[in-house]
Design a protein that fits this description.
single chain; alpha+beta; 4-stranded antiparallel beta sheet; 8 strands; globular
Length: 203
């Protein structure tokens, strides 16, 4: 079936903007989205779409960072464990049964961005040695990444601040952690404004 035929079959009001973005993307660059993505969206129920909306507020880059020692239970203020299991069964995320390790390498005297939607985290290495930061996360699947990319839902500022604090607490010496408004320039660079610096908490 054609991309447009999937869109015409979808009557859910909440998905109209998503379909508009998909069709616009396909018109500009055919092959941007797979037929599997179209088929998946066309069969979403209202409750499933709402779950994905909630998840979108927690996505940073292509994952959902896990805070603290209690794993996915640390996310209970934002999304329930039952909902996470449902999202995994839908094929949107992976890593519920065993958290996935995310590694960020910050080269000497340079910065990298961990970008959410409209806000992000800036990691700056002030030393002459490459530094590595590792933390656990839930990973978006390929289809999960495609769908989240289509949604215009900003990352939760409260959640991003907590992620920033968590990273500041575990970051090696010489890594500055900041968060703020984030505007992607290209695939590798982002412009930050209104940044706030996170200090390592005393434990």
């Amino acid at each position: 079936e054609s991309f447009r035929s999937y869109a015409e079959k979808t009557s859910k009001e909440d998905l109209k903007n998503v379909w508009a973005k998909i069709l616009a993307g396909e018109a500009c660059k055919p092959g941007t989205y797979s037929l599997r993505t179209f088929s998946f969206i066309s069969h979403l129920s209202q409750s499933e779409a709402t779950l994905i909306d909630t998840l979108a507020t927690l996505v940073v880059d292509t994952s959902v960072p896990i805070l603290g020692k209690d794993g996915v239970l640390e996310l209970k203020e934002y999304i329930s464990f039952t909902d996470l299991l449902e999202l995994e069964s839908m094929g949107i995320i992976s890593g519920i049964s065993g958290d996935i390790i995310s590694t960020k390498i910050v080269r000497k005297n340079s910065s990298i961005a961990i970008s959410g939607k409209k806000i992000g985290i800036l990691l700056t290495n002030t030393t002459n040695i490459d530094k590595e930061i590792t933390f656990t996360s839930l990973r978006l699947t390929t289809i999960g990444q495609n769908i989240i990319q289509l949604l215009d839902i900003p990352t939760s500022i409260d959640y991003l601040k907590r992620v920033s604090q968590h990273i500041a607490n575990i970051a090696p010496e010489g890594i500055n952690v900041q968060y703020g408004t984030c505007f992607p320039i290209d695939n590798n660079r982002s412009l930050f404004s209104q940044v706030h610096t996170m200090e390592k908490e005393e434990i």
